[in-house]
Amino acid sequence: MNNLNEHYRVLLGLDESWTVSDVDLQLEDNSVVIELSHRGGPLTCPECQGSCGKADTAPPRSWRHLDTMQFKTEIRAAVPRCRCARCGVKTVAVPWAGKHSRFTLMFEAFGIRVLQAAANVSRAAALLDLNWESVHTLIERAVARGIDRRTLDEIKHVGIDEKSLGKGHDYVSVLTDQDHRRVLDVTKDRTIMATDELWQTLSETQRNAVESVSLDMWQAFMTSTSKNAPGAEIVHDKFHVSKYLNEAVDKVRRREHRELKSEGDERLTGLRQLLLYNEENLDEDGQVEMQILQKSDLRTGRAWAIKENFRHFWLSADSESAGEFFRSWYGWAIRSRLEPIKTVARMLKRHLPGLLSYFRHHVTNGLAEGFNSKIQSIKSAARGFRSFANYRLRILFYCGRLNLLPEIPCH
Ligand SMILES: [Zn+2]
Fold first, then answer.
1. In this predicted complex, what is the ipTM?
2. Cα 81 to middle of ligand 1, angstroms
């Protein structure tokens, strides 16, 4: 048995203070229990790293390890407790597992890889033979580790977005790093408090170094951002603007469609989706329909033309020519006699500095570009979610680009 013991000692990366005292193969239930024992000698305090003597031994406990062949493998050990003059009695750190973990470091690393590769969390849980609670713990530890390591990164361009959660009016706010295309954090709601909380995921040094924040024209986001990232410039980009303009066109269409229908006129039937497209993305039939609409005397056609025209704003060479473009576009919109369009035009005018900032930073919305579908798939896979905390962890696990893997010591 000695060779097998030595084999496990090397595999587990144990240092000289630990020895494999027994390997118990339990053939009837396909499992292996590896018994470890401490050799004695001086101990290191887990808090202050000071050298200290032994107080006593904690009751034996076990850690799930990587399967050996097809045998479910468990490490069992009674860990000594040291008596530190400064910190009191503490259980010493073990080389094979992280603090408070029920898994060995190698199992954690493997579990993280399986979770990353599996199509969904329940599939990974089945592959790893873990229950939901344990998978949750694994994800939680990995994310905490990743966030901890992220505190030194320089983060220059961020975005804040709202995302609706489910069918009701539940919203979450999402902070993204636009340079590294990753989600930095998620909080429940879209209030000032929720946004403040979002900013807390960055250190003060990081917050002060942020150069631009791309966000929706939502007052809570703006108020919190000026407070938490005082050096950052607020940018409203084309995704935010086109969202409002599309909504305005749709309001005009709905109202006009109702009026026409009551007179038996079906000209606006089935146009809703078409009106959301940019002109160049329309197929031939769509282009013909839009030409007919524009030549008609319908208000919807005018609203659509005003929306489409605003896209030239983003093509301006610099903020000066963009400002000029805006003035003439604004005049057109205000004279349009289309209330929803006028409302958006006034809002854009109020936020003009943020719109013009785009020409200094040229940032676009990370969430709209990449994370939306990923977050959506997490949301729909998450019907069984017990809490928001769970949802947040999974977004950070899958979209946070965090350095999740534990460091495994080797001897
Ligand atoms: Zn200590």
1. 0.96
2. 11
